[in-house]
Inverse folding.
DNA sequence: TCTCTGCGATGTGTCGACAATAATGAAAAT
DNA sequence: ATTTTCATTATTGTCGACACATCGCAGAGA
């Protein structure tokens, strides 16, 4: 039995959402994403209900939503566990991501406003400066709302695509990254690729934007594949 | 208040799943997809619980899962309603579908077995015969498991992609099609496009398979756009 | 010593009920 | 006649409890 979870999960107090299900969902989501609850760890309803002083109903609902989000698996009569994605899972995710973000870039090329493109340029610039001070550092998205890919996912103006990327794929990808390494030394290459995607977007060239974004993600995928000999 | 729902929903009896949540989820899903519960119709928990002789807990869980699947919307204190997708929703869905099925075709070109390809050819042949007897008829997927697109979604060997397409997109697309027309007179053109995709798959040419599949879906999208003058 | 069987423990699915909040309609006042 | 206020209602979120299925363990038998 793992140590008391609540002591690790405490967050400020902005979690006071309207209902306890949402609050629990947020708490558990961030706890999983931050690694406070590790992959493979079991989450059983009664224990969580006890620790948070609520009944099992909201816990149950939060867990079910985590399952739909793909962060936990729920096998019958065996409890729910945080997923511990395999390398194959990671690769599968990246293949789909290539398709989705490629389309997002294509659509964003015509859908993003000039103001959004300027903000995106600012993000790329800041990324370049951070890279200057820490050349070998990986590309970490310290702020979700100010991430390059998130901005494009929002800018494509396709609610289905935006929701899929932001609410399902990015959390899962973050989990995969925390398990397998990736993003080592690719910081500079990634930045250059971002710059080219941005240039295509500014030129409102959807065809090129899609190609460049897909190539960008495929590069990351191949960098990941290179970490395992075979 | 609509007429008693249970009288319309009765299905054989194979719904006797392990737990009542799953059974309800299946029943409601098929009821929505078959149009027995129409778009915009309200589904309130107590009524459904009464009609099926269960408590609100399984109903609640089934509805939540329907929401995650994108078949119903759940606005607070206003009940859950079956979605009545707008034309924009339909178009958004088709854009994402183009990206997803394009990637699925690319992967399937190398992942599908020879046996699977032969089965796929059989499906295309049968589609052609059906078309011969009813040339103007639309392309309807009478049998989910024997649908052209489903076979490719399964054949790509990417569980993320397969799940996304089969469990999220195809149900939603079917709902969209039942509301807006589409698929009128496009049966023959669609069949020809299917044939070409199949040919590319047989040649194990992922690049071409992706291009053809994307073009196929984009044709459907443009046919849909053509139905509305502006 | 090994295997089978019965028992307890853990965890999940389901239930009925209560309280709180927001939408709906009616009544009253301007 | 229109608007404001209030009460009713509908729906939801939450709770504690129970029944059942599964798993692990111990004891009996071979």
């Amino acid at each position: 039995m793992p140590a008391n979870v609540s002591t690790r999960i405490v967050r400020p107090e902005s979690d006071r959402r309207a209902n306890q299900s949402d609050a629990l969902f947020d708490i558990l989501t961030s706890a999983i994403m931050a690694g406070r609850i590790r992959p493979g760890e079991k989450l059983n309803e009664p224990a969580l209900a006890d620790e948070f002083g609520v009944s099992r109903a909201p816990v149950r609902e939060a867990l079910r939503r985590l399952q739909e989000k793909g962060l936990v698996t729920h096998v019958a009569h065996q409890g729910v566990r945080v997923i511990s994605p395999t390398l194959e899972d990671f690769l599968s995710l990246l293949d789909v991501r290539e398709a989705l973000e490629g389309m997002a870039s294509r659509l964003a090329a015509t859908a993003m406003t000039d103001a959004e493109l300027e903000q995106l340029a600012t993000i790329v610039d800041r990324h370049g400066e951070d890279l200057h001070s820490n050349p070998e550092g990986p590309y970490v998205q310290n702020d979700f709302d100010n991430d390059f890919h998130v901005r494009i996912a929002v800018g494509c103006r396709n609610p289905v695509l935006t929701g899929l990327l932001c609410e399902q794929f990015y959390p899962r990808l973050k989990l995969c990254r925390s398990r397998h390494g990736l993003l080592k030394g690719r910081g500079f290459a990634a930045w250059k690729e971002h710059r080219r995607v941005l240039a295509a977007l500014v030129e409102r060239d959807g065809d090129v934007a899609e190609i460049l974004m897909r190539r960008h993600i495929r590069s990351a995928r191949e960098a990941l594949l290179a970490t395992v000999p075979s």
